[in-house]
Amino acid sequence: MGRMRRRHDLIALVLALCVGCGSGRGGHTDGGEDADLPDGDTDGDSDGDADTDADTDADGDGEIGDPCGDDGDCSERLRCFLGLCRRECGVGDYCPRPGACLLSENLCVGCTVDTDCRGGGQQTCDPTTYSCADVAIEDPVIGVMYHQWWTPGRWIGDRGNYVYEPVLGHYDNTDPEVVRQHGEWAELAGINTWVLDTWITDRDDAWVVPNTAAVMDEADRRGLRYFFLVDGWFEFEGSDGGSDAFAIASRVNAKLGPHFDRPGYLHADGRPVVFFWAAWGHPCEAFDAIRAGIEGTMGPIFLTGNNGDPSCWDRMMEYNPYTSLETTYDGQIRRQEDLWSGMEERGFPWAPTAMPGYDDTHVREGNPPIPLDADFFARSLRTALQYNQYAPPWLFVCSWSEWHEGSNIEPSTDFPDPLVFLDTMHDELDAAGWL
């Protein structure tokens, strides 16, 4: 009831702020065809096993997943194991997920190892029943890329450099009331962490210092966590054409390091988290040198990044999974499935990022737009949440307020329900057991 009352209050605020809402873009999702099935169950029979043949829906006794006392209770091609009729299998045989072949018995079971179960640390394989069991997700990081660079002078005209119109208008990120509202909305969606896009270039200090301080102050007050996405680091080149590790590390130490001990700053394994984005094409040696320069002054850090080589990082992260090579929602989802399944197979710690859309046509040319869409956002979240991660699990969304690139889930007047993306995120997280 508390959440519903708070949502009603927020809707009232949105309606008060929103003039001309409802131009009609976007929609909401009901969680998909499988939303009402129990965790670990894909066939609707509540046994945690997937039906494997078209005839398994028959009403007769002894089909896959039916209770049994011995093999005689099962149909001719099935065997009884741990009280259920099972399909036979062998090396190389396919048992649909959730499911795997238990080679010691040559039977399809619910699982043999944890990775056969739902990802994100949501389930573990019970070795006594070979079935997936729900586990409590402890302290997940549910983050959003937060761009705190907005000042009145950054907004250009009527959508001159942004695609969607904010409910809060052309706001200033130093305004405590704006950041307070962002905090309320973030909590409504289930977000507990802001990834603060923070430039280390000297020319940006005029907005970085006051804007970042205002956001961190509100996050500390509210109990939200945050950490820095290091931006602009790639502008510092060494004499050999590579990155100037000393210049980068010294600026991180001076500009960002003093905040590592703030109450809300995120630590992993006892170390402050630092994310270097746009790391493509830079070798691990460059980031090894940057890490050494930071740690020599600030102590150990938890370094994350996305240059494609997981050995560079304590945990792999992606800022945004968008690709300009795919022009449809289905194509973008295929791209994300390739990304996350590839990271899972590597066996290194990693974290996925979901997206609601992408449209940077008001600031640059060449990237086909993917308009904001709540159904697509729900699919993107489900795609990210289905893969196994390292504990505690991390999930990110790009973005909260990158209005330049039309990837924002912050409420916009362009939708009949300005809170649609926040509700979509909450519903998907709740269905996955993250809340």
Question: What's this entry about, in short?
Answer:
By secondary structure, the protein is α/β, with parallel strands linked by helices. Helices cover 27% and strands 15% of the residues.
Short descriptors:
single chain, 435 residues, alpha/beta, TIM Barrel, 2 domains
Description:
The chain is of the alpha/beta class. The protein has two domains: 324 residues, Alpha-Beta Barrel (TIM Barrel); 81 residues, no CATH class. The chain is 27% helix and 15% strand. The protein is built from eight helices and 16 strands. The strands form four sheets. Strands 7, 8, 9, 10, 11, 12, 13, 14, 15 and 16 form a ten-stranded mixed β-sheet that branches. Helix 2 links the parallel strand 7 and strand 8. 46% of the residues are buried. About 10% of the residues have low confidence.
Distance between the termini: 16 Å
**CATH top-level class of the largest domain:** Alpha Beta
Question: Architecture of the largest domain, CATH level 2?
Answer: Alpha-Beta Barrel
Return the CATH topology of the largest domain.
TIM Barrel
Shape: globular
Question: How many DSSP H or I helices?
Answer: 8
Task: Give helix and strand order, one letter per element, not per position.
Answer: HEEEEEEEHEHEHEEHEEHEEHEH
The CATH homologous superfamily of the largest domain: Glycosidases
* Record field, number of beta strands: 16
Biggest sheet statistics:
10 strands, mixed
Radius of gyration: 24 Å
**Average pLDDT level:** 86
Strand content: 5-15%
